[in-house]
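Contributing new records

If you add data, match the layout below exactly. Sequence lines come first and carry their own label; structure lines follow with theirs. Keep one chain per record. Anything else will be rejected by the validation script.
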Amino acid sequence: MPSWTFAIRGSGAMWRRFWQSVPAPGDNDLFALRKTGEMTIEGNLKPFMANLIYVKEVLAMPRLLDDKT
């Protein structure tokens, strides 16, 4: 049985926009996408918020690959 503490969910199209090397305004931040309803953040938010900068940086890493693919 899968187990998770928190989940960050969005459509494939949303992730592709988020991972562009220079995302459009509103597609560049997890909370902006959550506010528009394109992304959900669910589960135990305490570890998510405690490690927010790390989580944001890890999720933004694919942007560095955009120009190389």
